[in-house]
Amino acid sequence: MEYQKSEERIKDYVSRMRAHNMLANLLQEQLWECLITGLQADIHEYLKHVNKDSSDLALASPEMCFQAIIDTGMDVENEKQCEQWMQN
Description:
Blueprint: H1 10-24, H2 28-37, H3 41-50, H4 55-58, H5 62-87
């Protein structure tokens, strides 16, 4: 099991998980579970909020799983960056 490091960008986390999955070749459901379990808490919560029925994504292709994680993570990262700019 791999977890997203505290300052790790979402694209780097997904890239690392893609590399691991090339060796592990997980089923989509397993891949999705590993991806969301390893996310930072704020990204995981946002993903649950925007994707009420994430089981559809679990049944999608691995690439769709990776892209859903990237899209959601980028939203959260951009929001954090905007908040930091507003504070400065």
